[in-house]
């Protein structure tokens, strides 16, 4: 018998979880299909399974599937159903976390910019405007998940209601509405909530009669005590933080493998079930990385989502993988296929030999950006939301008169970072904390072309600043005088054709050739002789010294010939800040600020023969880029998040 009405696969029995009537322990790990190239989904799933896991969980980011309102996409790299079927094909269970909010250090916590840009909308509440949008989204996504529930022949054994709501708000009617919306659309497997093990969070996020799970990174005894004081239910850790993510300008967070393994074993010895967050982190490709806010400034998340996970960003099993597998072997799952722990699933993937590349062409970036995207004129600068734009850059252009002598150009409400040009010359950069202090400029009483290239560094994904708008939210001033009449040019880098940036079109300017585009070191077989990425970290300005002769705001292209595609890591020694494309795919940001010093390029992004790397440098370029055979995520810092 299949279909609605069949009993759920997982059920609560007092403090026990039963799977088809037999006591069961969930040994799970998070793998986000949206952070992994789809050609590598099966590979990554086999690798986490080889750690001894019997379950995989994933969020579902709404804005990944419905970037444009009313046009949801569920194919290609957004084929959620294919990913879930692969989980089932490998003999594993799946847990799905459809939000609608997911956090996940993902831009906007997974909420679409078209929704959070709606005037007056109250996010994650019973606001009818918000609920109407969620209902339409659930109409699309939930039936797809419901059809793949285990009691209908699929792998899905549990679905989460919202996500850590108790650390955000206390609209209990809203959380109940999300639960009922899932049930109404066919979810009849186990439903659960997940919150930190504090009274504040559990008070805000739990639902009567729905399994309460906890999220934490240490002290499982304390978490169990608090949960049992409130409910006599199975002990489930929906997220065990065995690693952590990184922000630009901080160190690379790591956690000692044996420390993480000890806490997991303590949790299991208490009779608990666990999901590792993350089992495999993946990559924030393109412009998908989110940001946090510490109350003083934005904390943008780096391109890598390696998260010091047991299966590294490139799929390599780490020392943490081995330590955790030793724990799971002592608490084995009876549901895994016989070959699940085979060592063949732990072998590293092939990598390209190291080499360096010099630019095939270079061209100034600002003149190119002035011709791309679409522009609107208004009395003041328009925000990203007013332009209908999610991520990338906006180029603002006005024609003020600069008085004789020195004056200050400042911005009220800058979100998030601006490079400032006067008559095409870069004069400085501004960030949130420096925007109202401004940059000093010199005038002679004549009209100038004032341009601000403003970057969205990542939408806040957690806390009360969720849904913050981007761009220039207030005014631009010359001293105390407001500058009016602005052209706002939308430059969504993730949507623009990179060929237009390079000047590949019939009318494009290909720039100047700087070299033959390729080179090797040590015969191409090792990294001997390659200069390492600089360890210096520029301040908030990130502006090259004037008069140094270094070009600014450059588009550079590189040619990479490959006999057979394999993984590689791009380093940009001497470069300052910008974006990298591999062929037609926006890989992500780089920033000398660190900690991340290399960008992971999975083999499926390359093709046999000629490949093109494109770099948009916002400040001062280096002389070459390097392809390395190992990642460099920066200076390490031991980190354990404790609630």
From TrEMBL:
Domain of life: Bacteria
InterPro entries documented for this protein: B-gal_1-like, BetaGal1-like_ABD1, BetaGal_gal-bd, Galactose-bd-like_sf, GH, Gly_Hdrlase_35_cat, Glyco_hydro_35_CS, Glycoside_Hdrlase_35
All residue ranges annotated as the Beta-galactosidase galactose-binding domain in the record: 559-611
Annotated catalysed reactions: Hydrolysis of terminal non-reducing beta-D-galactose residues in beta-D-galactosides
Phosphoprotein recorded as keyword: no
Keywords noted in UniProt: Glycosidase, Hydrolase
Top-level enzyme category: hydrolase
Domain Beta-galactosidase 1-like first all-beta: 381-491
Gly residues bias locations: 514-527
UniProt-listed Enzyme Commission number(s): 3.2.1.23
A Pfam family matched in the record: BetaGal_ABD_1
Sequence segments annotated as region (Disordered): 502-545
Domain Glycoside hydrolase 35 catalytic residue range list: 17-328
Family: Belongs to the glycosyl hydrolase 35 family.
The name this protein goes by in its record: Beta-galactosidase
């Amino acid at each position: 018998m299949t279909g609605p009405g069949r009993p759920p696969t997982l059920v609560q029995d007092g403090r026990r979880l039963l799977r088809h009537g037999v006591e069961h322990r969930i040994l799970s790990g998070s793998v986000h299909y949206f952070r992994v190239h789809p050609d590598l989904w099966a590979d990554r799933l086999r690798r986490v399974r080889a750690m001894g896991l019997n379950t995989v969980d994933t969020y579902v980011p709404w804005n990944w599937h419905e970037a444009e309102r009313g046009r949801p996409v569920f194919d290609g790299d957004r084929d959620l159903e294919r990913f879930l079927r692969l989980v089932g094909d490998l003999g594993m269970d799946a847990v799905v976390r459809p939000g609608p909010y997911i956090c996940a250090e993902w831009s906007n916590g997974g909420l679409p910019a078209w929704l959070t840009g709606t005037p007056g909308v109250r996010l994650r509440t019973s606001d009818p405007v918000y609920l109407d949008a969620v209902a339409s989204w659930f109409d699309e996504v939930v039936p797809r998940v419901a059809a793949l529930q285990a009691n209908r022949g699929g792998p899905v054994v549990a679905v989460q209601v919202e996500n850590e709501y108790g650390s955000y708000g206390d609209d209990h009617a809203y959380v109940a509405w999300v639960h009922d919306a899932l049930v109404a659309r066919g979810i009849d497997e186990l439903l659960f909530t997940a919150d930190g093990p504090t009274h504040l969070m559990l008070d805000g996020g739990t639902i009567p009669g729905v399994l309460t799970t906890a999220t934490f990174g240490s002290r499982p005894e304390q978490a169990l005590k608090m949960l049992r004081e409130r409910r006599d239910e199975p002990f489930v850790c929906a997220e065990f933080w065995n690693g952590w993510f990184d922000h630009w300008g901080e160190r690379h967070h790591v956690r000692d493998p044996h420390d993480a393994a000890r806490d997991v074993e303590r949790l299991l010895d208490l009779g608990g079930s666990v999901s590792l967050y993350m089992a495999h982190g993946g990559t924030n490709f393109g412009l998908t990385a989110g940001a946090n806010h510490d109350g003083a400034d934005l904390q943008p998340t780096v391109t890598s989502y390696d998260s010091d996970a047991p299966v590294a960003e490139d799929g390599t099993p780490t020392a943490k993988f081995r330590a955790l597998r030793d724990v799971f072997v002592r608490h084995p799952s009876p549901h895994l296929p016989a070959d699940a722990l085979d060592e063949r699933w732990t072998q590293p993937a092939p990598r390209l030999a190291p080499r360096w590349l010099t630019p095939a062409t270079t061209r100034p970036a600002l003149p190119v950006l002035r011709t791309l995207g679409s522009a609107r004129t208004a009395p003041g600068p328009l925000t990203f939301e007013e332009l209908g734009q999610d991520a990338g850059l906006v180029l603002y252009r006005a024609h003020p008169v600069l008085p004789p002598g020195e004056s200050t150009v400042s911005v009220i409400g800058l979100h998030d970072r601006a490079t400032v040009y006067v008559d095409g010359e870069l004069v400085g950069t501004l960030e949130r904390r420096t925007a109202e202090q401004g940059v000093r400029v010199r005038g002679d009483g004549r009209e100038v072309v004032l341009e601000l290239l403003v970057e969205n560094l990542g939408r806040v994904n957690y806390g009360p600043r969720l849904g913050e708008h981007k761009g220039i939210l207030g005014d631009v001033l010359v001293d105390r005088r407001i500058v009016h009449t602005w052209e706002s040019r939308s430059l969504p880098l993730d949507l623009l054709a990179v060929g237009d940036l390079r000047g590949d079109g019939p009318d494009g300017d290909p720039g100047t050739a700087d070299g033959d585009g390729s080179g090797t070191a040590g015969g191409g077989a090792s990294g001997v002789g390659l200069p390492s990425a600089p360890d210096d970290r520029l301040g908030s300005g990130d502006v090259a010294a004037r008069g140094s002769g270094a070009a600014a705001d450059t588009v550079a292209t590189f040619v990479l010939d490959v006999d057979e595609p394999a993984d590689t890591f791009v380093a940009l020694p001497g470069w300052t800040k910008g974006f990298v494309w591999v062929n037609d795919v926006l890989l992500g940001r780089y920033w000398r600020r660190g900690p991340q010093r290399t960008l992971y390029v999975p083999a499926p992004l390359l093709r046999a023969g000629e490949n093109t790397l494109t770099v948009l440098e916002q400040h001062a370029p280096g002389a070459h880029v390097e392809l390395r055979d190992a990642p460099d995520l920066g200076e390490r810092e031991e980190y354990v998040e404790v609630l």
